[in-house]
Design goal:
about 170 residues; alpha+beta; six-stranded antiparallel beta sheet; 12 strands; disordered N terminus
């Protein structure tokens, strides 16, 4: 009998704590909004955003300030960052995409690369790193042919063209 009463008390306390937590959650959380007024991502910190892709995949994407003609950051405006790389098992950067594992605990591995169509976010699988035979690497300046066995990789499971899906300028609201 004492066990049931104790369990009921713990359950009631947990429910009360849950209600209290629900009450302090902001009704309108901060979001990164694109030029169309559409929510593009949720901020993790000042430069890392969490972007929702297809099939429930959420991956980190980086932003950078937009600069004016004098090289100063425009107040309240940002754009998608690029400068990453994606490794491919094909010789022409078309199939078998992989990205390096993430250094951020709990976040998917991801990489952002500038292409002729815009900045593309490549989100990696969740799980342990693998070794793959890489035949090409996609950089901002194009595809480079290589032949190397590389470890510390995860396969890409989803991609999104950030520029077309969420056109800059971006701002927090």
């Amino acid at each position: 009998m004492k066990t049931r009463v104790l369990a009921a008390g713990i359950a009631a306390a947990a429910l009360a704590a849950g209600d209290a937590c629900a009450q302090v959650t902001p009704a309108n959380p901060i979001a990164l909004v694109d030029s169309n007024g559409k929510v593009a991502a949720r901020p993790l910190n000042e430069i890392l955003m969490l972007v929702a892709l297809d099939n429930g995949v959420v991956a980190p994407a980086a932003i950078v300030p937009i600069y004016d003609a004098d090289g100063r950051g425009a107040s309240g405006l940002a754009t998608w960052h690029s400068g990453g790389s994606v490794l491919f098992t094909s010789a022409d950067c078309t199939t078998g995409a992989h990205v390096y594992t993430s250094t951020h605990p709990g976040l998917r591995a991801a990489s952002q690369v500038k292409t002729h169509a815009g900045i593309v976010l490549h989100a990696g699988a969740i799980g342990p790193a693998i070794t793959a035979t890489i035949q090409s690497i996609l950089y901002d300046n194009g595809c480079a042919s290589v032949t190397v066995r590389q470890n510390g990789l995860v396969p890409v499971v989803a991609t999104i063209n950030l520029t077309t899906a969420h056109p800059p300028p971006l701002s927090f609201q």
